[in-house]
Design goal:
single chain, 2 domains, transmembrane, Sterol desaturase family protein, mainly alpha, 404 residues, binds zinc ion, globular
Length: 404
């Protein structure tokens, strides 16, 4: 049986997140907010899922570039693995720096910086769009001549490191601070304090920041999040708000040249009123509601089930049909959209539940023996349609129990 053991990363990292949470709780620190954490993990679930679907494609891209255009024909050796690590880290530095200095890339990377907490869950705040953009930068590696298996192996290790620097529990690390990116360095990167803006872009080594003048030591307490915070848990808005703001600002520009200048220009030059205009168009209210305990449980349980589902999905991905993959992806994304909306007390979540039932049906259709599940789900969906209003009221009163 060909199982994908990368799936075990999910229980491992969730375990580490839980240990950090227990320490934070024991020390009575305010480093972790449940809704913020759920929000971070939601974005991570979507990224992991989509990543599974595109990883094979990335491998093929690297492989064909190396075979057709690779300058050298590199064979693995200790020296070349070290060289690959340095090259990967160097490319990351420039990708990350440009992601902060160019609107078109910032639109993808901004999601990572939206959290106002700083803990292990923040490391999950990566979008699949960012993963796609990074692939463009990593293409330099096969062009040099590094083979695809070496690159994907290195990217896996290189991608694990940042998880450990997203924490406030670890102070300064003495001599390690000179060479490696430490939690202290990365706290500075996530801070919105004036003196910390656009600093410490490194991923594993801090040497690039020192070399190119973007290094800043942590001295004053960082304030985390964006300089203009996003006060919403909406899953979709967090992913796409900056694209909309950019489109609004570009529309205001008179010429193609000035539009392009804005697209590739710095984020701090973007019209500051574009956010408010975008929010008005999409009726986004600046409001992170206080959420009562019963509601938390509903969202938390959906997250737990999604994580279990994602684990099983990645573990058995080689055996899944295209239909199952599409149906599971649809169900997961709808659930994430719904959970974000529930945290904001939206009424339209009831309609999304229908779509979720249909995507569950689609999953069940992939397995012929599950005729009973299909029948039950169909009856539930039809009954909910017939008794739309009373069922909706009952559902909303159950989910938003505090309103009773
Ligand atoms: Zn960044
Ligand atoms: Zn980070």
């Amino acid at each position: 049986m060909k199982l994908n053991i990368i799936a075990f990363g999910i229980p491992l990292f969730i375990g580490l997140i839980y240990i950090e949470y227990l320490i934070i709780k024991r020390k009575k620190l305010n480093y972790s907010n449940l809704h913020e954490s759920i929000n971070n993990i939601s974005i991570g679930i979507a990224e992991r899922l989509c990543d599974v679907l595109v990883t094979g494609l990335f491998y093929l891209i690297y492989d064909s570039i190396q075979k057709k255009y690779g300058i050298f024909n590199i064979k693995p050796s200790v020296f070349l693995w070290i060289l690959l690590l340095l090259a990967t880290d160097f490319i990351w530095y420039w990708y990350h720096r440009l992601a902060h200095e160019m609107n078109v890339l910032w639109a993808l990377h901004v999601v990572h910086h939206q959290s106002e907490d700083f803990n292990f869950t923040v490391s999950a705040r990566i979008t699949v769009l960012q993963a796609v953009a990074r692939t463009g930068f990593w293409c330099v590696l096969p062009l040099i001549g590094f083979p695809a298996p070496m690159i994907t192996g290195m990217l896996l290790v290189h991608g694990l490191y940042p998880f450990f620097v997203h924490t406030r529990l670890v102070g300064k690390l003495g001599i390690l601070e000179y060479l490696f990116v430490t939690p202290s360095h990365h706290r500075v990167h996530h801070a919105s304090n004036e003196q910390y803006l656009d600093k410490n872009y490194g991923d594993v080594f801090i040497i690039w920041d020192k070399l190119f003048g973007t290094f800043k030591k942590e001295d004053e307490e960082p304030v985390y999040g964006l300089t203009h915070p996003l006060k919403t848990y909406s899953f979709l808005w967090q992913h796409f708000h900056y694209f909309i703001e950019m489109a609004i600002a570009m529309k205001q520009e008179p010429t193609l040249k000035s539009k392009l200048k804005l697209l590739f220009g710095r984020p701090d030059a973007l019209d500051p009123t574009a956010r408010a205009k975008a929010e008005a168009i999409f009726h986004i209210k600046q409001n992170k509601s206080t959420i009562e305990k019963p509601l938390n449980n509903y969202v938390v349980w959906q997250m737990i089930l999604l994580l279990v589902g994602l684990f099983a999905f990645i573990l058995t991905e080689h055996y899944l049909s295209v239909g199952t993959i599409i149906a599971f992806t649809t169900f997961t994304l709808l659930t994430l959209i719904n959970c974000g909306a529930i945290m904001e007390q939206k009424r339209w979540i009831y309609n999304v539940e229908f779509l979720r039932v249909f995507s569950l049906l689609a999953i069940a259709f992939q397995f012929h023996n599950y005729a009973i599940i299909i029948t039950v789900l169909s009856i539930v969906a039809i009954a909910a349609c017939i008794y739309y209003r009373p069922v909706q009221n009952r559902y909303l009163s159950l989910v938003y129990r505090y309103q009773q």
